[in-house]
């Protein structure tokens, strides 16, 4: 079983003896964003069945079929990875209706988790995943009935501009795109009527939509309570039916909602597109235009495209010329209310925009739309305070977190709770509060903005993405960094800043974990898939690795997709982030690299002047099973297969893996631990980079034992500041079998 993981008083992951450890792995995997039966990826044509059969879908076999678990987990172990972020969606649990749970799916997940546990050495934490609210608003997450609950008719989102779905770009006859789906168009749904309304209701319905009550609750409470109850029903069933997963700490804990959005909050003038909005692509309506379009009023909407220096207006287009409505008719609402046993408050009128119902806008006597309160969402009606990002995060978001945390701690007081605030924003200021304990993890996400939006790795220049989001530059041009060396340092600095502000605002005892970080693989218009040149992807992934290891950060790459293909990527909105693809399997070569079982029988550790002996390193952190080196299908392998400190007897100081020179450097502050008697640090040392007979070691002190079956270097060293450097060499004199000491 894997060793128990704790969080130290300094906010580092440690084992039971206080040795610092690092958790690294992947998100497994994005197929959970859509049903397995009927198959419902974003490149399936949009048909009436997409909506009609939404309550009958099944997510069983997503992310993996049970009989494929060993195949994929073995591949991840080949990389030295020890952790899986396991996404699930609200829809996968509660698609049939409020309070009706899919126990077959839950039991399937339990079977998959048991198989992962049975393979040993892997930790798992669960992620309630969402993107722009729901797959019915162009993303993933919430079930269809939540949109009906808010009074929406999703079948009419497309013509009204309330959401844009990749599915609507697919020709039903050919199954191909009949028009180009622009890169990263899906996140613009965060600023369209459906998604913005849903998040506003979810976090602030009581204050801003008091007329929207359902079954005696305001819609905010109805949605939040339903979401939390579904998550806890799922987690609780795993806890009840597979307690060994928790006893052996295969399951580390649960994350809060993935990438929460602020809705309309912080929008200070509903008649204008906020100047600080960084993402504008395609049609970009103002909030007021979205309200009108939703009620069937056509409008000329500005269109934008993305440039290095920010959004650029490209023109305008006429939206909703047929005057369709995104809201349920009276008859439609009666039907859904009957189906889901909903009783709405008397003030909640059908066929009416929620925000017109609350006086945000209305019609004049001559029938023209008029904005009544342009700053409706900019002030808290109970306090009068301005609702900026800090106010939202420390108020509305914290209120949700407190409720989620209480429900979680009621059923599990021992596992980790991963706190995730809005992406790239500061976490709430909770240091010293009762909401933070020694089992709280700060969950960060990071993506490099330029690489993400343009799907390229620009070695000449880049920008400080975090600085732009935080509005640290008067002009975006001031955020530019030149040259690949400075770009790498800039990314590292951004991660450092996120780690430091987590400690400052949540407490120094908080562990920081990048639960999502990654780079697109379909760079340069997918050229690598034709010519095999993955140099852009190698450079991009190596830059992330450099930034992470230099900060000693635990992470889960986005992502590992078991269904990835060159044509459709991760099968969701043309995203293609998977480090592995079935289309990159080399069927002509052997999949498994043979393990090196040669050992030195003379001794298991040696002096610093002799060669490194082979032997067996058995440790709870790495398990006792032999790890095959199965790299077939991985992309940019040299950049994602990296050495790292699996266990440090002491404290991390610095580390860097130089991929070009094939050199790894680690510095630690070693401390004596009476429980172990000796000071030993374990380093995952991949044979692909550091083959025996071609690796030289330079160190301040130490004796070494290399376990080729587990690719682990055991370093027994002295106390104090200690450093080790490993370098691949073409030839190592007089050492055909092991490593030499420099």
Q: What features would you describe in this structure?
A:
By secondary structure, the chain is α/β, with parallel strands linked by helices. The chain has two domains: 6-265 and 383-584, Alpha-Beta Barrel (TIM Barrel), CATH 3.20.20.80; 592-741, no CATH class. Helix content is 26%, strand content 20%. The chain contains 19 helices and 32 strands. Strands 4-5-6-9-15-16-19-20 form an eight-stranded parallel barrel. The longest helix is centred in the first third of the chain and has 23 residues, at 219-241. Residues 590-611 and 732-742 have low confidence and may be disordered.
Total helical segments: 19
- Classified in CATH, the superfamily of the largest domain is Glycosidases
How many domains make up the 3D coordinates?
2
Uncertain runs are 590-611, 732-742
Strand content: 15-25%
Helix/strand-derived category reads: alpha/beta
Shape: globular
Number of DSSP E strands:
32
Which sheet architecture does the biggest sheet show?
A: 8 strands, parallel, barrel
Q: In percent, how helical is the residue content?
A: 25-40%
Could you tell me the radius of gyration in angstroms?
27 Å
